[in-house]
Amino acid sequence: MKRYPAVSMKxxxxxxxxxxxxxxxxxxxxxxxxxxxxxxxxxxxxxALRNEGFQPVQMDLADGVSVARAAGEILERLPMGPGALIxxxxxxxxxxxxxxxRDAMRLQFEANVFGTLDFTNRFIxxxxxxxxxxIVLVSSVLGRIVIPLMGAYCxxxxxxxxxxxxxxxxxxxxxxxxxVVEPGPIGxxxxxxxxxxxGRSLEMxxxxxxxxxxxxxxxxxxxxxxxTDVFRKPPEAVARKIVHAVExxxxxxxxxxxxxxxFGDFAARFLPARGRDRLLARAAID
Length: 286
Hints:
Largest sheet: 7 strands, parallel
CATH topology: Rossmann fold
CATH superfamily: NAD(P)-binding Rossmann-like Domain
Oligomer: single chain
Number of helices: 11
Radius of gyration: 19 Å
């Protein structure tokens, strides 16, 4: 396991802190003495963060102008850059791949992939100059395995996994650690956002999967359970892994969180593709 220098400045930028993993991470780091600058998109979320004592920055990863402005504002506050950058912001575009428009696919990658890398790249020169820093990419178990009707989201997370590997190899000699965190089922508002995206970007009634969409992608939020629900953990479980990634002298390459994430890694490496397809399709399309 590779040893990295301790973070020289206990300051962190955490993206996507409106709720869930991002908010739990910001709170946990702040409680451990870090100076945290959180980002969020919506005015109401920014106001809520201010009420908790943070000084947040507005940013929409899908908008290149917003990314540039947010990075500039952060660098005005932290001229030497943060000690750690936690890339958590993103969303899940639902729908069968045949039902997704080019614009829907493009927006998914703009937010989860292109915007994340653009934002990260704006701090790497400062990390290199210091020969010090931590970068965390919050991916998903779905960055290792694919489930039907979430193919666009899975593709974006597969891309994020590759970006994490590339950055780790390219930056390792500069003393910059790069870790990928892979949550499984976590108790967050993720599904609510998925439902919102379905209403905005899917023509659900005309699809072959219309019955499934009606069951899974309409409000109210489902009340029935799935087998994976028994493995669900709170967002603080992910936050603890992120804290380890930015504070340990021996940060891990990947941090699976929940049994489902560990199983996903195992399945991706060892289960035959056809058997994995049958298992995951049966679980996702009932």
